[in-house]
Amino acid sequence: MKKILITGGAGFIGSHVVRLFVNKYPDYQIYNLDKLTYAGNLENLKDIQNKPNYHFVLGDITDDAFIQKLFEKEQFDGVIHLAAESHVDRSITNPNAFVFTNIIGTVNLLNAARAIWKEHPEGKRFYHVSTDEVYGALGQEGFFTEETCYDPHSPYSASKAGSDHFVRAYHDTYGLPVIISNCSNNYGPNQFPEKLIPLFINNIRHNKPLPVYGKGENVRDWLYVEDHAAAIDVIYHQGPDGETFNIGGHNEWKNIDLIKVLCKVMDKKLGREPGTSEKLITFVTDRAGHDLRYAIDSSKLQRELGWKPSLQFEEGLEKTVDWYLNNQQWLDNVTSGNYQKYYDEMYGNR
Ligand code: NAD
Ligand code: TYD
Questions:
Q1: Ligand 2 atom closest to residue 213's alpha carbon, by position in its atom list
Q2: pLDDT band for position 96 (50/70/90)?
Q3: Residue 156 a catalytic site member
Q4: Position in ligand 2 atom list of the atom nearest CA 88
């Protein structure tokens, strides 16, 4: 029997990873540690909350005494670490929260894992989930590989880069059995509507403006969230210690092109005249330090561990839109209260 701690399991990607592990490995005990910040939502996991191999732990990874005690008590065999402050725009307005959670929180988990695995590190694993944003920005050509030098530009990506460096340092200095993956932009069900795709789905639904930063020419490489969770499963079980794997779907889209496709899908699903949603597009002041282009080379993962994305983007986008339209109560719940205040602060002055 294996005991695995998944951090940030109530968030977007974490909830898909928790669901996959709970359902696929009934002989594992899965512990979901989450602080339930604005981005954490236990509603994301209501289909598996009563499974006997699922356990929720409310807690903050920046609380080192609490983390130490939890590890001593539960003696986890593995950690899959996703808990983070994850939104670039929030990192621009409040960088400190990103330093605390993403860097100090990660170091607290590394210390706790090191303490309980010191005598017997064999068979143990600390899996750190990171982002392609640590590599910085590409021009029109080329891809990020595992050898690309780190060059983060936002407080978010700088904090993730810092945490990645600590994870590798604990491997090289203390022999901690770690593994890291760096993934491109995810989309799919349960993503908090501050990120591009769910924000725009929600705004189209309410006939609100679609705030496109700059000229909409920035490029992102989009991967369906369940394909990311499947990659994490493969890497967790088969990746060699100390390695890094890039995850991405070779699916680059200029923001404005993606938004136009999304508008077409929404018109169709909502039974609106073609072209109705596109009229909501509003060009606004560009994001500070806005990275031009991300594109991942995931050939190492495909070649060495046999993973590949399962969905074409058009199919994934339709599935995603269907999910948000069939779960409008979910959207309404997470867009009330605190979120509204944040939204006004973030977009009110544009
Ligand atoms: P998210 O913001 O949806 O979820 C983060 C989760 O972490 C939430 O449930 C939140 O409550 C929890 N959390 C935050 N601070 C915490 C703390 N101090 N203690 C305990 N829990 C805390 O994020 P996401 O988009 O699901 O991203 C998950 C991970 O994947 C992050 O590490 C992120 O950097 C990485 N990642 C995200 C993407 C993407 O496109 N979203 C792409 C690549 C990598
Ligand atoms: P986002 O979903 O925030 O992901 P990231 O910044 O981590 O890539 O943004 C995706 C792209 O969409 C990015 O280039 C910024 C842009 N964007 C907008 O144009 N308007 C918006 O309101 C948001 C949230 C993002």
A1: 19
A2: very high
A3: yes
A4: 6
